[in-house]
Design a protein that fits this description.
By secondary structure, this protein is α+β, with helices and mostly antiparallel strands. It has 3 helices and 9 strands; from the N terminus they run βαβββαβαββββ. About 20% of the residues lie in helices and about 35% in strands.
Length: about 130
């Protein structure tokens, strides 16, 4: 049996603003951008080799209030890298806001950052298991 988590929905205020950040600044791939009506699109982006984000434009007060707080303030998403120093430097150069300096944990090097919408992420390079 094969199963994988392929896509995670992320509520954003604007499709194009989200595409500019994830694709233009972070280098994610734009997988799909399909118009489904005057104000609705199916937009998916993904880092190379990772699960996709479905960028969903907030509709209504409940969704708008969830932007940046889909997990009640906890880190929501984890961007794993094979070279923490390289990606940390590139993200800083792209204007990404880190909440902390990189730290070493038993599982790897990690630092919390926020996207422009307030979502908290970990940038993480895992240590080899063995």
């Amino acid at each position: 049996m094969y199963r994988t988590l392929s896509t995670v929905a992320l509520v954003v205020p604007d499709y194009d603003q989200a595409i500019e950040f994830y694709v233009g600044r972070l280098g994610f791939r734009l997988i799909e951008d399909i118009r489904q009506g005057p104000d609705k699109r199916w937009v998916t982006v993904a880092p190379e080799g990772g699960a996709a984000l479905l960028l969903g434009k907030a509709v209504g007060q409940a969704q708008t209030s969830a932007i940046g707080n889909q997990t009640g303030g906890r880190v929501f998403l984890f961007l794993e890298t094979d070279d923490f120093a390289r990606d940390h430097a590139a993200m800083l150069a792209a204007g990404v806001t880190f909440e902390e300096a990189p730290r070493h944990e038993p599982y790897g090097i990690v630092a919390v950052w926020r996207d422009p919408f307030g979502n908290r992420w970990d940038l993480i390079e895992r240590y080899p298991q063995g």
